[in-house]
Write a structure and sequence with these properties.
single chain; 427 residues; alpha/beta; Rossmann fold; seven-stranded parallel beta sheet; three-stranded antiparallel beta sheet; 16 helices; 46% helix
Length: 427
Amino acid sequence: MFRWLRPGLGVKRWLVLILLGTTLLGVGFALLLLHFYRIAPDAWWLPLISAASLRPLPRLIRVVVFGSLGLAALLGGVIGLNRALLLPFRRPGRDVVETIEAHRRRDSGPRIVAIGGGHGLSTLLRGLKEYSHRITAVVTVADDGGSSGRLRASLGILPPGDIRNCLAALSRDEAMMAQLFQYRFANGGGELDGHSFGNLFITALAEITGSFEEAIAESGRVLAVHGRVLPSSLNDVRLVAEIAPPHSDQVVRVVGESRIPQFKGRIRRVWLEPTNPPAFPKVIRAILNADLIVVGPGSLYTSILPNLLVPDIAAALRVSPALKIFVCNVATQPGETDEFTCADHLRVIEEHIGADLFDLVIHNNRQEGRLLEGMQWVRMPPDAPLGAPLYEHDLLDENEPWHHDSFKLAAVVMDLYRARTSPLAEG
């Protein structure tokens, strides 16, 4: 019972208020009884009240007895009421006090901005939500493949795919609703073949509300999302790449995020069309107010760079006082970062955005397991210049070694944040 009095639960203040109110109510009732004693000293019911109030006992003993009974009844009633109210929301095997304590801790967690897209960003978010509810995910809007590309081409809506993945990852309970949001119609669905239910849901909400931003917010409420997901820009942008085909001196211009990895050759540079799209203002505010900014993991050219190529986002990232961390991929992506090292990832970002963007670089140092065809481990060559301190750790997902483990990665990120922001670190 005394665990309810732990600091940080936000319970003690209300207990004090209830105790004060109960005391004042008791004082008022006692004054009423005294009034009746004085105006009707010979009433037949007064001896009964006198006996019930333990009047024959010394006054101090009566204070202790009634005070103890009242406090026990008060605490029992408050705890019973809380359990009854929280019963629909309790999870089997989870203690109520621990659940409330964890919720309050996450509500006061650091303001985190995660920038990227695809599977990598949702992996990171799934781990970070255990440490903070003040998370902003910034997602690229250059996706033009799959279900998102079809909806974008037919309805002119911004691509909802990466946004859907991030909403599901930030959901309070990735059970039925999150699974429904991620459900993809299989062959035999006719016009729905390949479409994700979540993409259709966001598209329908955008039509109803008249705003893509409002559709994302409403989807977050449906999924009970802790945090928010924001598009990097509300403009309809395309990702364009210059690719040098193998055994050729020519350069080919490839338009479309989905086509870039499919074209054989080395990517020289990428850019957005139309150039210099305005950033979504809420993204800029989130970056400037952040305590921690994490870029990556994710596809370098088609998920990470499209966000950083929005000039306002790159500028805000550079001047933000937050701790800025770059998370390097575990494995290369076929057709995009073949044979890339960790230093190569940072070199490409430097060539597109500029140097000295990050305070720390995180790299996986465990290369075990079988990768998918065409993949190689992203290694860190000795003495390679990074422009920022390097931190290496085992971040491997045991089941899919080409991906990060959500909880390993989030734990390392938060440990580094605490180490760099603690008073001892400043000394």
